[in-house]
Amino acid sequence: MKNLKKIALITLLMFSLMNISNADASIFDHINDIRSTYEEKGITFEAVYTIDYLANIQGGLQRKDTYLSNRELTLTVDTAQLGLWEHGTFFAYMLDSSGGDKITGSIVGDTQGLDNIEAPRTTRLYEMWYEHSFLDETLAVLIGFHDYNSEFDVTQYGGLYLNSSFGISVDISGAGRPSIFPLTAPALRVKVTPNDHLELLFAVYDGDPGDPDISEHFPRSDFDADGDSLTIFSVTTTGEIILVFPRISLTIGGSYSVPPFAIGTNEDTTCRGVASTLPCPIEKRYVSPS
Fold this sequence. Notes:
Layout: H1 2-18, H2 22-40, E1 43-56, E2 64-78, E3 88-99, H3 103-108, E4 122-134, E5 139-146, H4 170-173, E6 185-195, E7 198-206, E8 229-241, E9 245-258, E10 270-271, E11 285-286
Antiparallel strand pairs: 1-2, 2-3, 3-4, 4-5, 5-6, 6-7, 7-8, 8-9, 10-11
């Protein structure tokens, strides 16, 4: 219950801030005015604080409660509004993860993440990329450290749930170490939008961004150093179907990962991408290239 007391204290502090006097409120108004001034110049920054309280009340490895917290700071720069060059966007994302014991591996013992903000305790640069648009913004090329799940394999309502299974599909999250939370990898992404009803995405990611349990403050920049890569594409079309659906969206795609995973072998039981302290499932066992 120690963690629950911490949550209660933070919640009380948040409610206290909501009930501040009008004089103190002017401080926050001043901050918003500064933010609006920078937004007019093409500089947008956001800060988000997320905290989850979880408890295992039956089964699993141990009956225990814990809390997880994330502090996020993002910066977006529109190069045209800033007075530099046209059609450019720069994005940076700092992530600070903290909290108690890991709910997935230390308390429950599941093979999939039980909470979508669960990550090793560290402060790191999560994303940093530059995107440039061409041909009246019908073609956009992005390069840098990019979260695969921010554009690929995205479910419309998955973000409403804490369990990570509702987010990215396990066939991708278990395929090595993809460029997803909490550690991203170098990537090259191309997006083509010839009209309002069609979008084509193609990307190549470094297949091994590193070990998230190692407190690295910056992503690895050695693209394809170990021969690993993830290539993916998707095609999304939207339109109206009269008298049946007012609007429908259809996405198809595919991916190719190098090196592949072996099924039914004990050659190398190094488990990559499975958030658990349990033995790695045999279908997720990685076979190192000879």
